[in-house]
Amino acid sequence: MNTDVMEKLAGTDRWTQPDLLGLEHLSAEEITIILDTAQQLKEMTNGCAEKLDLLRGCTVANLFFENSTRTRTSFSLAARRLGADVIDFSSSGSSLSKGETFIDTAKNIEAMNVDSVVVRHRTPGTPHLLAKNIRCSVINAGDGAHEHPTQGLLDIMTIREHRKKIAGLTVALIGDISHSRTARSNIWGLKKLGAHVIVCGPSTLVSRRWEELGVEVAYSLDSILPRCDVLNLLRIQFERQITRPFPSVREYALLYAMTGERMARAKDDILIMAPGPINRGTEVTPEVADGPHSVILHQVTNGLAVRMAVLYLTHEVNR
Amino acid sequence: MSGILITNGRVVDPSQSMDRVTNILIEEGKVAAYDVAIDAGSTNGSTITLDASGKIVAPGLIDMHAHLGEPGGEEDETIESGTKAALSGGFTSIACAPNTNPPIDTQGTVQFVKQQAADADNCNVYPIACVSKNRSGEELAEMGTLVDAGAVAFSDACSPVSNPELMRRALEYLLMFDKPLLSHPEVRELSGDGVMHEGLVSTVLALPGMPADAEAVMTSRDISLAESTGGRIHMMHISAAGSIDLIRRAKSRGVRITAEVSPQHFSLTDESLRSFDSNCKINPPLRGQQHVDACIAALKDGTLDVIASDHQPQAVEKKMQELDQAPFGVIALETTLALVITKLIRPGHLDWLSALEKLTIRPARVLGIPKGTLQIGADADVTIIDPDETWTVDPEHFFSKSENTPYRGETLYGRASTVIVSGAVKFERNA
What is the ipTM of this complex? Predict the structure, then answer.
């Protein structure tokens, strides 16, 4: 049955990366391979509900140095859907508090014959350091505000499912761009596939420097709203902000919350997305989050599909 | 003590504006004569002859900004290992920073440093003492007694003197001793928890940024205080174009200000951080190309007087941490000269005279030490440089105890081949 499945997974042999550290350094073709593989896996598993045994006998380690429920659950489930064993290693705070360097911790995990390490850490670049120091596949599940490639991929997959294309679409990322790894991974992935990307939020959270990379920078949601095909409503990362970048949550909501009133001024076929968890009432009102344009729950299912694809593709290279 | 005759070298001594091929005779630890015939030297049976054909013969190099770890940071460096690294880097005199544990803020610590340096018997070591007790920025250290013990300058090293009233008082008080205050210009509230220069690269990498303003704003304050008190201030490791503009204008008004740059800041940019390598994490941070260009322009027009290594050893296990946890700093004693040659002299930004001036007589004058010259009668501290030696940076072969260099694997040009301190050969490469 396995060979059968592998024959059906078209295009996977063109994938050459042992790790997935971010979308910035992937080509459009590589991103498309992941998306196509995820789409096939989703169909083969009846919407990510059934199991395959593509990774039977393999072990995936979740190395989470920062709290996470959704992403870790999603990676665990994706690995199990492919027949892999999963071990969880969680530790909040620095490994140094136990007198061990982060790299030593990872090497210890690797010595348990692990095939893939899924890592989340509060510090940008930590998965990259890990990849330089251990042999098994390293998958970035979020490094500080730097990248969260599987989140970017699942967002793009969701848009592609609904619109059948990415090129030519106008996608706006709304809110706290500075502290958002989801924003960065979306920017790279969407740009490479030909979308027009707008970042929109308070000027203290949206750097003008993004213009140097071909991204449109806007401060008024109302002025860009009529042009947008997709809105991705980012969560305000209160926990990452050192100083408060805007006067009050109330003022933020007035300027940037997606409300029913604003929906009336948007395109008829606009897609509303949110990487979750969402602060209802701050970034989006319940009527919009639960309304007909919302694809928030599709994103969650596609997260499983994308993570299955990434675990499979990277593992095949490292096998 | 036997004499040394250095023959056929290109003697470059900025203190005398000298750049010519000649022979130098060293006797009794002093520079004795020029243009000595080789026969004359060899008639004295005990005189050693060193053939310096094709080499540069320079006054012993001076590094006025090195962190030697000891006391308290012996896992990073000791005075013994640091001074050995200095010799290998061509330095015959170094001034060591006081951010040790305990800090150099009492006569006892000054004397300890001098004693360790004397025991190591490598190069000359001049202690820098703290501006404030325990470097806490609250109370002035006992500067008068520290001068008596041998402190050549004052600094809270790696910490700005944030309180402007204390800074003003320190500058006024130091007028009595004519010692410079070495400022670390940084507004801590602006650099915050930053790990790199704030710019496009930090935006993309999502690493907290340290804006160039953090340096320029403090530089502006320091200039005001130096100007109004008449005190002597020296700005350490200048990295930002805005600070350079301020210093240039202050100098033209006659403010008693000097400034230094580290080789890291004229040779690397914030692009290096794309590797997430903690060996590129320094304070002030590696900045963008426009700042590097401003540093080079300021070296050319003399706004930046001194090149200083800012050698800051950190043990391997400290740098192996996550980027935000890893401490700032790189080792630099053994790469500074080669970076000056590779990045400033070879591309034509500076000639040998003006480059060596910033490594010899200029830092000597800032510190007020009788060094950095090959005038007849001066201490015979001499660095013989092979300007064409091509070598690859490998910190495992360095004398420093630490390996935190951002230049690992890089090919550089030029190195010290022989280093003489007070008439004694202290270092010979491949000897």
Answer: 0.91
CA distances from A127 to A71, A264, A310 (A): 16, 43, 15
CB-CB contact of A280 with A259 (8 Å): no
- The residue of A92, A100, A101 whose CB has the most chain B CBs within 10 angstroms, and thus the best one to mutate to test that interface, is A101
Give chain A's end-to-end CA distance (angstroms, integer).
19
Rounded to whole angstroms, the Cα distance separating A246 from A32 reads 38
User: What separation, in Å, do the N-terminal and C-terminal C-alpha atoms of chain B show?
Assistant: 21
The verdict on whether B379 is a catalytic residue reads: no
Question: Residue A57 has which token pair?
Answer: 């006998």
Q: Lowest mean pLDDT of B39-48, B135-144, B156-165, name the range.
A: B39-48
Domain boundaries, chain B: 4-57+379-428, 59-367
Nearest to B203 among A126, A128, A207 (CB): A207
Whole-number Å distance between alpha carbons of B189 and B160: 11
**Backbone φ, ψ for residue B419 (5° rounding):** -125, 125
Tokens of A92: 């909040």
Kind plus residue range of the DSSP H or E element containing A252:
helix A249-256
Using only C-alpha atoms, chain B has a radius of gyration, in whole angstroms, of 21
Question: Which of the 8 DSSP states describes residue A162?
Answer: H
Lowest mean pLDDT among A11-15, A219-223, B387-391: A11-15
Q: Within 10 A of B72 (CB to CB), how many other CB atoms are there? A: 13
Buried-state track A65-97, b at ≥16 Cβ within 10 A, e below 16:
bbebeebbebbbbbbebbebebeebebeebbbe
From residue B33, alpha-carbon distances to A308, B279, B356 in Å are 79, 45, 21
Q: Tell the residue number behind the tokens 């004295």, with chain if given.
A: B44
Distinct helix (H) and strand (E) counts, chain B? 15, 18
Query: Domains plus CATH for chain A?
Result: 2-147+300-318 (3.40.50.1370), 149-299 (3.40.50.1370)
Q: How far is B325 from chain A (nearest CA, A)?
A: 8
Using only the alpha carbons of chain A, give its radius of gyration.
Answer: 19
Determine the 3-state secondary structure of B144 from DSSP.
helix
How far is Cα A78 from Cα A90, in angstroms, rounded to an integer?
Answer: 18
The pair phi, psi for residue B34, each rounded to 5°, is: -110, 170
Interface test with A, best of B191, B204, B323 (most A CBs within 10 A): B204
Instruction: Indicate the residue type of A250.
Output: R
Residues whose CB is less than 8 angstroms from the CB of residue B116 and which lie 6 or more positions away in sequence, other chains included: B70, B78, B79, B80
Phi-psi region of B167 (alpha: psi -120 to 50; beta: other; left: phi over 0): alpha
**Which whole-number Å values give the CA distances from B296 to A89, B13, B213, B224, B238, in the listed order?**
49, 22, 19, 25, 11
Structure confidence by residue, pLDDT tens digits, A109-144:
888 899 999 999 999 999 999 999 899 999 999 999
A191: helix, strand or coil: helix
| Residue B109 to residue B95: CA distance in whole angstroms | 14
CA distance A27 to A16: 12
Tell me which of B151 and A238 has the higher pLDDT.
B151
Could B317 and A210 be called an inter-chain contact, meaning their C-beta atoms sit closer than 8 Å?
A: no
How far is residue B129's CA from residue B294's CA, in Å, rounded to a whole number? 30
Give residue for tokens 């310096």: B52
In this structure, what token pair is assigned to residue B2? 């036997």
- Cβ neighbours around B276 below 10 Å, total: 23
The CATH class for the domain spanning B59-367 reads alpha beta
SS3 B385: strand
Which helix (H) or strand (E) is B250 found in, with range?
Answer: helix B241-252
**DSSP secondary structure letters along A254-282:** HHH-B-HHHHTTS-TT-EEE--S---BTT
CATH code that applies to domain B4-57+379-428: 2.30.40.10
Cβ–Cβ contact B200 with A under 8 A: yes
Residue B234, CA distances (Å) to B31, B148, B183, B429 in order:
30, 21, 6, 34
User: Do residues B154 and B179 touch, judged by C-beta distance below 8 A?
Assistant: yes
